[in-house]
């Protein structure tokens, strides 16, 4: 077991607490293995009726994967090791999504990348008023993964493309309105929610979700509906097929927020943004998580062999100079047809 995951059980509940608060509970391979092993044990434990997934500390539920470790692996050329780590995270997301007992994920503060992917796979997804959710991977030359492409693909309109391309985070209101969470609870409501869950634990996941929302749901702060209030220009500007055309629509928009989105996208890896848009759009047609995870794995294998990923982590996380040198730097030079071909499944694919 890993000290960075607290494993507790009481009154019919199994509670998993990510316990690396100094790193905003960023996931390590050991943490992923511990969560997976514990869920496998609890699946057949009659004393456990429901599971809670939460994070320690005030800063957030989970900031995503351990990017420093990923960068070291890429610099050493250990691409297969990098893919193995991702595959374990993907398998955990699949395990959570098909779990036989209700899993309730409580997302507070920063909930990013793999953290959002894992929480988003749970049957009941709760946010607090201070939550900031997002898939910021295009800032480092990567794409939403651990099921993030399916979460964004199922968001209404073109919100998924917008969040993937800009790497923006959203507040509690936008998270609920756009399907990233089921309801918002009070900032200090976790203990009360767990007490209610003890009474509901032997019900089905749907009944648990309804019961918890009725008992503990609160209205998200009005200031957290920014994306929801921007749907008109988002749906219009992200309708074109090609990234360069999307940027043109955003840049020419009468909406200042749209022009701001264009600037943020231009700061991200053009290759990653184009790939992210493709995986999100493809996920929109998926009925289950597995297909999206397989596509994300193909995207990861493609991008890890490209210099943008290591360069993005260097510039954003390691050196923190904020000046990544993307290749290509011009969105118009990205070969979208080649990306689409790479994302197509191969026969006997296994990850």
TrEMBL record:
Its EC number is 3.1.2.4. GO terms for biological process: L-valine catabolic process. It holds the Pfam family ECH_2. SUPFAM superfamilies: ClpP/crotonase (SSF52096). Gene3D superfamilies: 2-enoyl-CoA Hydratase, Chain A, domain 1. InterPro entries: ClpP/crotonase-like_dom_sf, ECH_dom, HIBYL-CoA-H. GO terms for molecular function: 3-hydroxyisobutyryl-CoA hydrolase activity; isomerase activity. Transmembrane segments: none annotated. It catalyses: 3-hydroxy-2-methylpropanoyl-CoA + H2O = 3-hydroxy-2-methylpropanoate + CoA + H(+). One of its GO terms (cellular component) is cytosol. Residues 14-342 form the Enoyl-CoA hydratase/isomerase domain. Keywords: Hydrolase, Isomerase. It is an enzyme of class 3 (hydrolase). The keyword Transcription regulation does not apply. PANTHER family: 3-HYDROXYISOBUTYRYL-COA HYDROLASE, MITOCHONDRIAL, 3-HYDROXYISOBUTYRYL-COA HYDROLASE-RELATED. This is 3-hydroxyisobutyryl-CoA hydrolase. It comes from Galactobacter caseinivorans.
């Amino acid at each position: 077991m890993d000290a960075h995951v607290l494993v507790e059980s009481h009154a019919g509940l199994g509670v998993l607490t990510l316990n690396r608060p100094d790193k905003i509970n960023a996931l390590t391979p050991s943490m992923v293995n511990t969560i997976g092993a514990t869920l496998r044990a609890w699946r057949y434990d009659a004393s456990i009726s429901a599971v809670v997934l939460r994070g320690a500390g005030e800063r957030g539920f989970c900031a995503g994967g351990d990017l420093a470790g990923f960068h070291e692996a890429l610099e050493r050329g250990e691409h297969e090791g990098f893919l193995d780590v991702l595959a374990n995270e993907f398998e955990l997301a699949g395990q959570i999504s098909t779990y036989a007992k209700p899993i309730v994920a409580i997302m507070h503060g920063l909930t990013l990348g793999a953290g959002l992917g894992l929480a988003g796979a749970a049957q009941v997804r709760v946010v607090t008023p201070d939550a900031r959710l997002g898939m910021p991977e295009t800032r480092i030359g990567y794409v939403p993964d651990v099921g993030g492409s399916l979460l964004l693909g199922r968001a209404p309109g073109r919100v998924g493309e917008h969040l993937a391309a800009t790497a923006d985070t959203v507040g509690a209101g936008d998270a609920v309105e756009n399907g990233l969470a089921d309801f918002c609870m009070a900032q200090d409501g976790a203990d009360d929610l767990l007490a209610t869950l003890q009474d509901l634990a032997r019900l089905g996941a749907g009944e648990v979700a309804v019961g918890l929302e009725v008992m503990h749901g609160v209205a998200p702060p009005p200031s957290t509906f920014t994306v929801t209030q921007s749907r008109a220009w988002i749906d219009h500007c992200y309708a074109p097929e090609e990234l360069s055309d999307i940027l043109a629509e955003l840049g020419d928009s009468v909406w200042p927020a749209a022009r701001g989105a264009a600037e943020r996208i231009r700061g991200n890896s053009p290759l990653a943004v184009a790939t992210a848009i493709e995986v999100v759009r493809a996920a929109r047609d998926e009925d289950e998580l597995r297909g999206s995870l397989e596509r994300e794995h193909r995207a990861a294998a493609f991008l890890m062999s490209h210099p943008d990923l290591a360069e993005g982590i260097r510039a954003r996380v390691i050196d923190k100079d904020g000046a990544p040198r993307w290749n290509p730097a011009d969105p118009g030079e990205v070969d979208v047809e080649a990306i689409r071909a790479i994302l197509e499944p191969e026969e006997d694919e296994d990850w």
